[in-house]
Each structure stands twice: as C-alpha cells, then as structure tokens.
Amino acid sequence: MVDQGRTRELPIEQEMKDSYLSYAMSVIISRALPDIRDGLKPSQRRILVAMNDLALTPRAHFRKCAKICGDTSGNYHPHGEEVVYPTLVRMAQDFNMRYPLIEGQGNFGSIDGDPPAAMRYTEARMRSFAVEMLEDLKLDTVDFVPNYDETREEPVVLPSRFPNLLVNGASGIAVGMATSVPPHNLREVADAIIKVIENPDVSVDELIDTVPGPDFPTGGIVCAKELKEAYRTGRGQATVRGVALPEENPRTGRKSVIISEIPFQITKTRIIERIAELVKNDVIKGVSDVRDESDRDGMRLVVELKRGEDEKTVINQLYKHTPLQDTFSIIMIALVDGRPKTLNLKELINEFINHRVIVITRRTQYLLDKAQERKHIVDGLVIAVENIDKVIKIIRTSQTTQEAAKRLTDEFKLTKAQADAILAMQLSRLVGLERDKLQSERKELLEKIKDCWLILTDRNRVLDIIREDTHELKDKYGDTRKTKVVDTFEDITEEKLIAEESVVVAVSHQGYIKQSPLFLYRRQQRGGKGVTAADIKEEDFAEHIFIASTHDYILFFTDAGKAYWLKVYDIPRLGRVSRGRAIVNMLEIPKEESITSMIPVRNFDDRFLFLASQRGMVKKTILSAYGRPKKGGIIAINLQKGDKLIGAAITHGNDHIVLGTENGFAIRFEERDARPMGRATRGVRGIRLRKGDRVKSLILTAPDATLLSVCENGFGKRTEFHEYRIQTRGGMGIINIKTSKRNGKVVGLMPVHQDDEVVLITVQGKMIRIQAQPIRLTSRNTQGVVLIKLEPGDKIGSIARIAKEEVEKEKELRAKSQEQETEPMPAPEVSEEEEEEEQTDQESQNSSKEDEE
C-alpha cells in the first residue's frame, strides 16, 4: 500500500476480509434487500422517482420505456439501461406483482416465460399504487441524499402510504442471506394495520386470523398449517397448489383435468413440459394429451385423460410429480435502519406504522412551518390594507425600494419579509373584497396551525390519520382474495397415486401372484370350455383367485398359521395370460410354508377374524390385532403338529359359520359359540371329522344367498342355506354334496347371489367365468351339474366369486373402454349324457331318506 511515497505492508487475509465485508454490505444495503418502510430496492425506488420526474401519472400519456430507463440510469442508477429495464418490466407484470406499480403498454412478457419486447417498443406509466407511494414526497417527509454524481438529490425512502412490502412482497439474494416475503391481500393487510393501531398488544396469532396467508397474483391454494410458524418467527414455508378440477365433455363423454391456476412464479410451459416427460416415462399413465387453451379471459390447461381413468388419481399424480404443487419459502428479512433484520408479521406491520408516523409528523411540521410563514405575511398585508393611505404615502415619497421597505418596517413594526410582501402587493388587493379574503385566509391559517400543533403534540391524532388513510386505501383499491387458504393438505400417499378399481388377484399353486383388470375376464355361459387364464409352467395352477380393490390390504395366511401383509397396488399388474411374480420376492415367507388363504381388508377395526384349520379347529380374534404385521409375518393361530390353516373370514360377532369338508359334509353353527381369543392361541373344535376327511372351506352364511359347492371334476350345485340346520359347534355335521368318482372331491364352498358370477380355475390353467343364477338349485344330497368341461386329466383348482357390485363396475368400465370386447359365447346345447347325469341327481335326491350321521 502506497502512503505519501512510502510502501506499507498489509496482511492479505485481513485486506480480503475487509474488502469482502464492504462488498457484502453494499450488496445487502444497496441492491438485494428491500427497505422495511416502502418495500422497495434502490433500483425500483429510482425507477419510480424518475417516472415521477417525468410526471407519468396514471392519467398521463405513456412514454417509451427506453426514455424511462435512460433517465433512471443517467440521473439515479448508473448501471446501464439494460439492467434497469428488467426491473421495470417486473413491476408491471400482474403475474409477478399482486398490485403492479407500473402500467405497461406493449409486450411485457407472459406467464409462459416469454420475454418482453425491447424497451424501444414498449411504453409505461405509473399506476395509482405508485402514486400513493410518492404522495407528499415534496413535503419534507423523507430525507434526500445527493445522487451518484451529485447533480441532483434522490430520496432515501418513499413516503409510501401504500403498504408495499406487505401486499406485494419482495425477493432477493444478498451475500449470506436472502429475502422472500410473500404477497398478501390489501384488504386483509389494511384490517391488520388497523387492528394493531387499535390494540398495540394484539398477538401474532390474532393477526393471523385477519391475514390467514399469502395472496399470490396467480391464485392457487395454500396450506395454512405451515404458515403460523412462518408468521410467528419470520421464517418458514408454504405449500402452494394449483387449481386442478375434473371436467367431462358432454358430447364425447371424455374426462379431462382443467388447470386454471398455478403456483406463484411457476410458468405454464414448465408444467406442460414436465407432464409430457412423465407421460413419456410412464410415471403418469392415465393422460392421453396436454394442451394449452389459455386466452385473455384466463388460464386453461387441459390434461385429457384416457377412457376409464380416475381423474382424482391423475390430479394426485400431477400434484406429486409436477410443479403444480410447489413450496414457497418465507424469509421475511428487510432493512431496518440500514441493517438486515428478520421480522414476524406483527413487526412488519409495526415498522410500517412507525414509518407512517414519522412521515405524517414531518409532513405536519412542514405544513405548520409553511402555514406560520404564510400567516406572518398575511398579518403584514392586513396591517398594510388597514393603513393603506400611510403605506401609499411612504411608498410614493421613498426614492428606492430599500428605503420604502425600511420606512414600512420602522413605521408599522414589520419584518423585512412582510415589508417585501407589501411592496409586491397588487393594487387589486386594496379593494374591500380582497380585504375580506385576507381576513378569511388568516382565520384559515390559524385553524390550520392549531390543527398541526394538535397533531404534533398528540400521537393518537397521528394514528387516527394512519387509520383513515388505511381505510381509504382499502375502500379504493381493496379486492377479493385470489389464493384460497385451506387448513391442511391431504397427504399424497402412494395409495392416492393409484387409481382405485376392482382387480382380479390370482396366486398360483407354486406361489406366483399378479393382479389383472377385472374386465379382461369376459363372461361365458355355463358349460363352456373357458379361456387361458395364466401362462403357467407344468404342474402349477392358479390356486387362489379373488376380487379386491387396488386400495385394499391383502392379509396372507399360510398353512403354518402365520399372517403377512401387502397392498394390492404393490402387486404387479399383468395380463390375463401372464404368469405373475413370485410371492417370495415380495413377502418373507419361508420355503416350507404355502399360502392357504387371502383376505382383502380396507380397515383394521373392531370386527373379527375367524380362522379354521384342516383338522376342524376354529378361532376368533379381533381384526385390529392383525393390523401391523411384521416383515417376517406374525402368528395368526397356533396349530397342532400336522395341522394346517385352510381358511379365514372377517365376521361381525353374530354371523353363522359353515365348515365344508372334502368328502362332502358340512356343519353350520353360530359364531358366538366361539369366544374371542388372542392371536397366538390354538382355538376350539369347529367340526368333528370322519376318518380320512378334512376341512376344505370356511364360509359365512349370507341373506338371500345360496351355498355353491364345486367338485374337482367340474361339477357343482347351489343349495338353500335353510337346508343346513344350526348345530352346536364341534358336531360331525350333515351331508352337503354327494361325492363320487364322477364328480370327485369337494374343491370349495362359497355363498352366491342370483346376480353374482363365478370364476373357476383348473390345474392346467383354464378358466371359465359363469353366472351363478343358471347353476341348478338342488337339495344337499345330490352330485350337481356340469359347470365346466374339463380336458382329460384336468381338474378344478380353485374358485372365486364376483359380487353384483363388481359386475356393475365392470359394465361401467366396459362402456368406457375403447377396446373391442369379444361377444359372449352362445349357450351350448345340453347333451344326452348331461341330461342323464341330471336325471341321476334327481333320482338320488328323491331316494335319500337319511342324510345325517
């Protein structure tokens, strides 16, 4: 460092620290952070001052932005016009400013992210909000400092009757800190200011009731739950969502999601590009097209859905994966007395009120000084008018103006200013009417002086003026809120990203699982040959098949008496002929265990889970005990050695239980015969088995339903439940179906209604879906009729029921599907062999006299 011709050494570390600190403070104070009083950065303030110099009021003609930027850069902000213009543009954009301070004419950019036209093409003038901020600027309300070249002066801050920082917010990145103040609604801010004036001890929480949240210029929905902490501390965040609503085309019936509002500072283009990317990558599968139909009347993004897609699910996917839901950081930092400070909501309001108190006090003092100065002159004029003859004589006999002034001063005890005013007085002021005007003006000045003194000596009068100004702003410029505030957003869990629909869940004998859309399984007539249900390998077959909602839980029960847990939407969705995925890759089931029963469950509540084992043991446990299975499974029932769990059902405490055996016997007893037990218990005896027999099915009776029994050779029958008398738990049961070599062992039992449908899966992978109503209704001691014609060596592996409600859902899906569905196969003619089999069943039914043991 050179000092008076000598070199002085300085530590480089210290010099860099000092230089960087100077640079940081310059950025913080002179560039990035807004002043707490007017909410403006220096560049914004200088633009408004330059426009005020050009008299670009709301009623003035527009001027070229190049002229405005040139004056701003040349007079106040010497950083170039190209730097000033973007700031001017932003102050005119109604999608960036809640209450724009500048009115633009020409292309000022768009919410799509389009840039504005060059400054030589655009024009601008101030809006009324800016005029409110500049009001009283010339009344000594704020301090002025020399501009950069000291050729003129510029205000340090604007008087700002308009609470700009609170309603328009601010954003900026300084060195080591940043500010992000959200915009708010003017009416709400005005009410909050008035509330603080009337009750200085009001709490932040009470102010939050008045200002519930930000009011963004682009609308949207904001979550109030996160805002309270931000308003209390000055730091936080707000989750903002766009408005996306479903819409159906009345002509085509196609459904769409209409986006009419988007989060603040997010462009439409960004949202459209993100949706297209997600659709391309199969993250969002239900969208067929995205287009922008926005016009001068408002925003309208159309997300067209594929047929059959759930619009609520697509909306959740849009919120989860696209900028349609965004987080707005709230960092309420502003310059207070030239230093950055983090403020809460009440402190922001108090600082604005304090600024207005200073402005009004300085304005009042300025007006008082001017009134007193004018009164002094008027007093002299009154004296001169009352003594006009002497005044005229003195003036006529004086040789010079200075002599006349001195003689007037000496004669009437006037000041030099009064004497000069008398000498400058026109002759027209001598008439009587003018004399009355002087007296009236003097009276008005006295009243004004008195009023100014009252304001200066009473702070409450100043606060009253602020309250009146705030009421006036509210009535003049207040508008309705654009952003909707809700208490909380429902969490978008993985489940909400999956459309809720009925699906077929199938599990093969060797442990492969899949889910398939219900409408893939077309209906056929009884006696058909079926269609291929799965591409299974040799000796494997679909052992379990049932209908569930994609939002259901699946409770898996193994033959070892353990329970496992899985969501339906976690099961891979595959086609009808696909093999599926190995359950061992999804659940930690030991190799020695096999799944024997699965139950779809929506809620784990106070219902009961009823279990039955192969040896006839049963157990009842409250369902909530199974709501949190461990990864490796939990104990569902303790089994004796050699016993296996064969079935599970959800009961309500007063159901009737039916246990069906492989050799065609069944027992019906009341559920209350089995008392509730814990999970890890053995249970009690449900049925006493005959030698060589074992329990095959556990079912519940149902009103207006019949009991369907299906045998392994493709035979089945329906029987009324009233034919099964209620017995005591633990009995040997009665005949359910007559088993023989022709129809084979019993595969399963299930209750069915007239409108239900039945799905049969064979061990060779064939499947048939038939209506329950055509299946013959017979008594217990019969062999049944042919349900499916089996290939040689094939047998029935499992059965499932499709309830009426699921059938109706499928019809709706079919009506909306674009796929061409195959026509139902015609009913086959009944062969002579089948007629003979049915006749044999009837004869067996008539000849049976004793069916109980």
Describe the protein in words.
By secondary structure, the chain is of the alpha+beta class. The chain is 31% helix and 24% strand. A 4-stranded mixed beta sheet has the order 16-11-10-19. A 4-stranded antiparallel beta sheet has the order 12-13-15-14, with helices on one face. The longest helix is centred in the middle third of the chain and has 42 residues, at 345-386. The termini are far apart.
Topology:
Elements: E1 2-3, E2 6-7, H1 12-32, H2 42-53, E3 63-64, H3 65-75, H4 81-90, E4 102-105, E5 123-126, H5 128-134, E6 144-146, E7 153-155, H6 164-168, E8 170-173, E9 178-181, H7 186-198, H8 204-210, E10 221-223, H9 227-233, E11 235-241, E12 243-248, E13 255-261, H10 268-280, E14 287-292, E15 301-305, H11 311-321, E16 325-331, E17 333-336, E18 339-342, H12 345-386, H13 388-397, H14 401-412, H15 416-423, H16 432-457, H17 459-477, E19 484-486, E20 502-508, E21 512-517, E22 531-532, E23 542-549, E24 553-558, E25 562-567, E26 581-582, E27 595-601, E28 608-613, E29 617-622, E30 634-635, E31 645-651, E32 656-661, E33 665-670, E34 684-685, E35 695-700, E36 706-711, E37 715-720, E38 734-735, E39 746-752, E40 757-762, E41 766-771, E42 785-786, E43 796-802, H18 804-816, H19 832-847
Parallel strand pairs: 10-19
Antiparallel strand pairs: 1-2, 3-5, 4-5, 6-7, 8-9, 10-11, 11-16, 12-13, 13-15, 14-15, 17-18, 20-21, 20-23, 21-26, 22-41, 24-25, 24-27, 25-30, 28-29, 28-31, 29-34, 32-33, 32-35, 33-38, 36-37, 36-39, 37-42, 40-41, 40-43
Helix pairs in contact: 2-3, 3-4, 7-12, 7-17, 12-15, 12-16, 12-17, 13-14, 14-15, 16-17
